[in-house]
Design brief:
The complex is a heterotrimer of chains A (about 350), B (about 270) and C (about 280).
Chain A: E1 4-13, E2 16-26, E3 31-35, H1 42-50, E4 57-62, E5 65-66, E6 77-80, H2 92-103, H3 108-121, H4 137-149, E7 155-159, H5 167-184, E8 187-192, H6 195-201, E9 204-209, E10 212-217, H7 219-224, H8 229-234, E11 239-241, H9 243-250, E12 258-262, E13 267-270, E14 280-293, E15 296-303, E16 306-313, E17 325-331, E18 335-339
Parallel strand pairs in A: 3-8, 3-9, 6-7, 7-8
Antiparallel strand pairs in A: 1-2, 1-4, 4-5, 9-10, 11-12, 12-18, 13-17, 14-15, 14-17, 15-16
Chain B: H1 2-29, E1 31-33, E2 40-42, H2 45-51, H3 54-88, H4 93-105, H5 109-119, H6 129-155, H7 158-167, H8 172-200, H9 204-210, H10 217-224, H11 229-259
Chain C: H1 11-35, H2 47-54, H3 56-88, H4 92-106, H5 110-121, H6 126-134, H7 137-140, H8 147-171, H9 175-183, H10 188-216, H11 220-226, H12 233-239, H13 249-281
Amino acid sequence: MSYIRFENINKSFGSNHVLRGINLDINKGQLVTLLGPSGCGKSTLLRILAGLETPASGRVILDDEDITNMDPRFRNVGMVFQQYSLFPNMTVSENIAFGLKLQKKTSISDIKKYTAEVIEMVELKGKEKAYPAQLSGGQQQRVALARSIIMKPKVLLLDEPLSAVDAKLRKALQFQIREIQKRLGITLIFVTHDQDEAMIMSDVIHLFSEGKIEQSGHPIEMYTTPKTRFAAGFIGHYNILNPDEFSTITGEHSPDGFDLAIRPETVEISAEPQSPGMNAYQLTAVVVGFIPHGNVLRYTVKIAGILLQIDVLFRSFKLFEPGQTVYLTIEKRNCLAVQSSEA
Amino acid sequence: MKKNKLNKVIIAAICIYLVLPLLLTFVYSIFSEWKSVLPEGPTLKFYVHLFSDTGFLLPILRTFIISVVPVIICTILILLAMYVITVHLPWLDKYMQILCTIPYAIQGIILAIGVLSLYSGLPEPLSNRIVMLILTYCIVVLPYLYRGIKNSLNSINAALLLETAQVLGSSRFHAFFAIIVPNIVPGISVSVMLSVSILFGDFVIVNIIAGSYYTTAQIYLYRLLFESGQTSSAVVCILFALTLLMTNGALSLYSRLNKKLLVEKEE
Amino acid sequence: MSKKPKGFFYLLALLPFLVLVVFYEIIPLLTVVFRSFISETGSITLDNYIAIFSKRLYRQAVVNSIILSAVSTLVGIIIAFFGAKAAHGSTQKLRNFFMGILNMTSNFAGLPLAFSYIILMGNVGVLVVFGKQFGIGFLADFNLYSLNGLILTYIYFQIPLATLLLIPVMDGLRPEWKEVVNLMSGSNLDYWFRVAVPNILPSVLGTTSVLFANAIAAYATAYALLQNNYSLLPIRISEQFVGDLVQRKEFGSALAVILMVLMILASLISNGISKRRKGERA
């Protein structure tokens, strides 16, 4: 039996059916990301696991125990919120020690020891006596993390913890969270709408859309083989062509009810025609423009009135000019059939 | 710039208009006589006399007591009620708001006669004047205290703090009184002081309900109005100074309490 | 494993508050309203209200109260408007100083204020003596113990309150709006009448009703200056319950209800005006 199991979870807020029969298993020691656009239900599922919301129907099982109706304070679940929510009237140390002091099971000297350990782990040594108002966003989030970790929870829940943090700091924190998770071997569920973040951090990604799980898998799997139009549109920068567009460009037909998704980096672009053979399409296009994205050049080209994006590693200094005719080679296996939304 | 000059003139004019009566009252209190255009005979004897007169000091003490006790009672009652509303029954909040806004419509004389006519004929302790006064005063300050507490709860995002504490193992009751309340203390200190100063300056309610039973500073002043002009003006100045001390004391208390919560960020 | 606690113990925490409010706010309020419809013999009647409007003494009280409150409110708002406007356009330092004075003098009301004005403008008041010495007519002949005197004192305590309420309202006027109007070749008057005033009108009206309620329920100042010699609602009301005259609880309650109605009416009118203006533009 998996460590955490959601069985047929349904939840509505008024007329808004936020979670529709969710079934999800999570294994111990993994960093799992719930990914999806705003309002798709991922945060709600997290809150149900924490006990801050009750499902309308279904069960939640944690470590072989049915906790569906259990009060949050008995669940031994750690949670870090988007708005940090440190207690403003307490110092960093006091915030971190709060949970242990409540339990009354640990001696004061042990509490001091654990607090120091955990502060070291989140790299906040020297800030023990600071108040939350004196800390930056990134620092506050690390305190929030420390405050949860010290309780040795069964699972750590992070609800969009980095959305309010500076972009520059976000990368460092992503790395730090992942490191801590691996070091402690703790089960961690991460909620975000940022697909890059999900890709960087996760063992498993569950993609949510409108209250249902659209697709689940390892980051690379999710990235290279999206199964639906939604998934292809959300992860990566797929070009998505409906059947008409696809046949206009390639002359071939896609299976009924399926669109075609092509990753921009899988298209080869050159100034001369190539002969790729049977397993690829050779297309002629006109360059519309390009945008430099750091080490990637993103070209927009037009074929028969249809726009395609092509990503090229910025290796050579040769750029394709707008208006120039170029030749594209797309391997057939890189044209993925994905389910249309109307299915 | 013409605009700036005009602004300064307007502000100066209003300030002079407002400060003049105060100033003149003070001057009146430090001179023995003021029969013609200028006063004569500077002296502090009226103040000295007042401070050594228990007939004056006692009413001042009584006023303090009767201003502070209702505020303490009302604050505790509101906090208990807000615990229930914030944690358990949030939908009750709009009714709470209505209840705490009604006192505006029945302020002063209406509340006083309402309470008096209702309870004066009944057995003790309901007909006890002091009890009536204290509980009526609680209603008087209800809107100010409620607003202060409510605004503070909103500004600290009480709901989020409660959830955080719960996940860390705290009961909601403990979370409310060990985390939420300490965090709103700076915020409500201003409303508390405002409420105390409002009660300190009340005349209508204490005159109607308590009258001769409990002579406060205001009642003392009223009696004095028809006797010595200089002593009355000294009393006026003392009362005003006390009120000023209270409200300014509140502001400095507020900023001191808030220092640890609003210090400049280091990075 | 623990189930969510099912208890209603927490409701006990709500109880003290409810007891206070029910017994000292709701029931007194209801008592006053119900009593106003009961005659001295105990039967239900409208006689109390009829008496208020048929007897000159009480009719005068209502009229005097309305006039006093309306005039002091109007003058107060106008002065406060220009004061707030001046504060809005001033440096931070001047503004803070001004607000400090306003806060300080907003505490000065009731008996102490009345007394100050007696010193200032009473029969042997400083300014009156000054006026007599230097032949300034209106100072020398000023009678503090009249409607005019009351209006003067009421204006005094309306100004700080009104100004403090209007300063944040003025702050809501964005400087960009004036710039936009100027760019469209509009004058400052255009800006004020077409943009600024319509935008702040709801708040100004709200402040007006607060001031009106403040004035009409005021007791201490009038009592100190005129005791029972001038007919005002709050004075007449208190007479029915305390003092030398015979107690007339039912009649006093009716007077109190009239006072409440006047306050509520002022609030409704100002809300109504601001809603209608909003509707016009919608």
